[in-house]
Write a structure and sequence with these properties.
This protein is an all-alpha fold and about 80 residues long. The chain contains 5 helices and no strands. Residues about 1-5 have low confidence and may be disordered.
Length: about 80
Amino acid sequence: MREIYHNRPPEEDSRIAGRNIRILRRRSGMTVHELSRRSGVACLAINQLEAGIGNPLYPTVAKIARALSTSLNRLAYDGNM
C-alpha cells in the first residue's frame, strides 16, 4: 500500500485499511470466512489486516477490495465510512 499513499507511514495505511475492511465487510453481512472465499486471501491474513497487524502487499489488498466491490482509495480513506 505504500506505493499508493506516500503521505502516511505504511503502518498507518495498514491500520486504516484494516479498519475500513472490517467496516465494509460487516456492512455487507460477510464473515471473514466468506470474504476469504471471495477474495482468495487466507482468513488469518484478513484477521491480521483488520487488527492492524503487518503491512500487506498491494495484490492482497486489491483482492480484498474487489471482493468487497470497492476501490483501494476507499479502503485507504481516513475518515468516516
